[in-house]
């Protein structure tokens, strides 16, 4: 059956709007009601002996892995190594036999990631795969198969597969934490409750589509754009920059907000928009002080935050995008939406081929 765009102008837009449904669908395979209680069921795979996790992926899937590293280390207290597949393959990584190697891929066919998986297998790693195409090579070669249920993704720039990967990684982090005895039942229930809030919060984020479209003309003329975030929102800054590059062809860089002073600050002037991802939470104040550094140099800021964050730091910004107030755990799932929509609307304004950007392929099956 041919997949249609429905009433959307592009597949990418359709896929962005599908996210609350496909994330909920993905979550349903990991979060189940047991005897009246909602919990993440244990995988049929013993995670209790895992001492170290090695995450390998490319592109957007790699950024999902970076968020996963924060979660696995925070909840399970297991060290996580992460690398892009093209580097991992050739750097002769130190892999103790019995370690868990985790590969993340929408297609399950990316040549570098697949070769990295086979390398890890040779090094006697146990292979976990987060993958959207259940019939793919990576799915077939997994010891622990963790499917995302995003459905077919047509837009070359990944959107819904990414947020589904995040949902699965949160479930994996929780499972590992439980297997390692690092979570009380109460803590697990809390994590599950927050995860279940994600689809609705993502719907609220989608309601800001028109506001984001109105901000796009402020970004479209720029030659360079900087994205800043901290903690798990740092990979989201990287992903926001990648989305913009991929489909609008504007040069964009994602940076850890605190690292900006070591280089990118030299770029700041009134021509370089700075997109700041700063949900309320333990790192908010730190990011606000980085915003002040930008403002002091005439930088024009688009602040993506919740009502409290915008009330505290929105003054003097070129624009603000209001997200629902969410627990920091699910912020990456929710903040994915505005960065995707912003890239989308800028690309539409620039008249690029949103679903099939130049020089890019949906699945890169060559090295
Ligand atoms: C290509 C696509 C990206 C994707 C990357 C990894 O570059 O254009 O959207 O993130 O490959 O693909 P995978 O299928 O392994 O997630």
TrEMBL record:
Mostly located where? cytoplasm
Q: Where is the SIS domain?
A: 43-182, 215-357
Q: Which residues form the active site?
A: 362 (for fru-6p isomerization activity)
- Top-level division of the source organism's lineage: Bacteria
Q: What class of enzyme is it?
A: transferase
Keywords carried by this UniProt record: Aminotransferase, Cytoplasm, Glutamine amidotransferase, Repeat, Transferase
Q: Which GO terms describe its molecular function?
A: glutamine-fructose-6-phosphate transaminase (isomerizing) activity
EC numbers for this chain: 2.6.1.16
Q: Does the keyword rRNA-binding apply?
A: no
Query: Catalysed reaction per UniProt?
Result: D-fructose 6-phosphate + L-glutamine = D-glucosamine 6-phosphate + L-glutamate
**Subcellular localization:** Cytoplasm
Functional summary from the UniProt entry: Catalyzes the first step in hexosamine metabolism, converting fructose-6P into glucosamine-6P using glutamine as a nitrogen source.
Q: How the protein assembles, per its UniProt entry?
A: Homodimer.
What is the official name of this protein in its record?
Glutamine--fructose-6-phosphate aminotransferase [isomerizing]
Question: What organism does the record attribute this protein to?
Answer: Sphingomonas arvum
Which gene is annotated as encoding this protein in its UniProt record?
glmS
Please give the first and last residues shown and the length of the full protein. Answer: 241 to 607 of 607
């Amino acid at each position: 059956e041919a997949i249609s765009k429905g009433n959307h102008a592009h597949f990418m837009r359709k896929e962005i709007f599908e996210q609350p449904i496909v994330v909920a669908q993905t979550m349903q395979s990991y979060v189940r009601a047991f005897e009246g209680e909602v919990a993440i069921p244990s995988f049929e795979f013993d995670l209790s002996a895992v001492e170290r996790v090695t995450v390998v992926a490319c592109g957007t899937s790699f950024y999902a892995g970076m968020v996963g590293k924060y979660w696995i280390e925070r909840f399970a207290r297991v060290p996580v190594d992460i690398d892009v597949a093209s580097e991992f393959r050739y750097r002769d990584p130190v892999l103790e036999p019995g370690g868990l190697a985790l590969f993340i891929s929408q297609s399950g066919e990316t040549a570098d990631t697949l070769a990295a998986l086979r390398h890890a297998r040779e090094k006697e790693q146990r292979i976990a795969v987060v993958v959207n195409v259940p019939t793919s090579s990576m799915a077939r070669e997994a010891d622990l198969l963790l499917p995302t249920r995003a459905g077919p993704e047509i837009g070359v720039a990944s959107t819904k597969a990414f947020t589904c990967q995040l949902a699965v990684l949160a479930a994996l982090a929780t499972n590992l934490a439980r297997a390692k005895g690092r979570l009380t039942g109460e803590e697990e229930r809390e994590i599950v409750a927050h995860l279940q809030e994600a689809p609705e919060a993502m719907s609220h984020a989608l309601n800001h589509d028109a506001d984001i479209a109105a901000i796009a003309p402020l970004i479209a003329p720029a030659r360079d754009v900087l994205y800043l975030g901290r903690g798990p929102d740092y990979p989201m800054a990287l992903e926001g920059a990648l989305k913009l590059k991929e489909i609008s062809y504007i040069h964009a860089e994602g940076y850890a907000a605190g690292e900006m002073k070591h280089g990118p600050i030299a770029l700041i002037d009134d021509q370089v928009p700075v997109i700041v991802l700063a949900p309320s939470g333990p790192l908010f104040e730190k990011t606000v002080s980085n915003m002040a550094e930008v403002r002091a140099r005439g930088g024009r800021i688009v602040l993506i935050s919740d009502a409290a964050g915008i009330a505290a730091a929105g003054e003097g910004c070129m624009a603000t995008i209001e997200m629902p107030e969410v627990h920091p755990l699910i912020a990456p799932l929710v903040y994915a939406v505005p960065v995707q929509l912003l890239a989308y609307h800028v690309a539409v304004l620039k008249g690029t081929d949103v679903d099939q950007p130049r020089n890019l392929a949906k699945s890169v099956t060559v090295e």
